[in-house]
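Researcher: Structure for this, please.
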Amino acid sequence: MIEQLVPTGAVAVEAFDDTDTEPLHPEEAALVARAVEKRRREFTTARTCAHRALRALGQPPAPVLTGDRGAPVWPAGVVGSLTHCDGYRAAVVARRDDVETIGIDAEPDAPLPDGVLDAIALPDERAMVRRLTADTPGPHWDRLLFSAKEALYKAWFPVTGVFLGFDEARITLHPADRTFTARVLVPGRGRDFEGCYLHDAGLTLAVVAVPN
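Model: Predicted structure, token format:
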């Protein structure tokens, strides 16, 4: 699914369950040694996707560890992103010469829990979600907005090292071509990003990528 959304030069690997995994590198295993079983399964499958994507990119075997705020640490010269939700795990990687940064997010295509939209959306974003929900068939627009912001953060943080709050980005969804625009509102760091999305098989996927 997600390969439909990634730019040229990127490699995507996805899984819909946890039945086909590879052993974790010892340093990766240490990261989830005390985690509950569900978390270990998700982590193992997502790392398996990452390892396979890196091999397809021509990279030698190496652990994918975590850095600041849990962001994956990729080999030198590589950018990438991971995501997982119920029934889905994925990794996307690319050479930095081809892609400056990439962020991916997967969510169940279901309404956000009560109160979450108010917490993550600006007033004009909430108005957009209400309008789309009333007038435009598609995914659950509140969940897609959340997913788009998550994908934006995963693309933003690795290149800036700066935390991005939900109220520091404005998303505009474009259902006609399944894209969105994202404007970062951080003073002195304002920047526009382009993204795209897909909803299928009970899932919503969002990708923000900046080609080089």
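Researcher: Any notable elements?
Model: Residues 9 and 94 are 6 Å apart (CA to CA). The mean pLDDT is 95.
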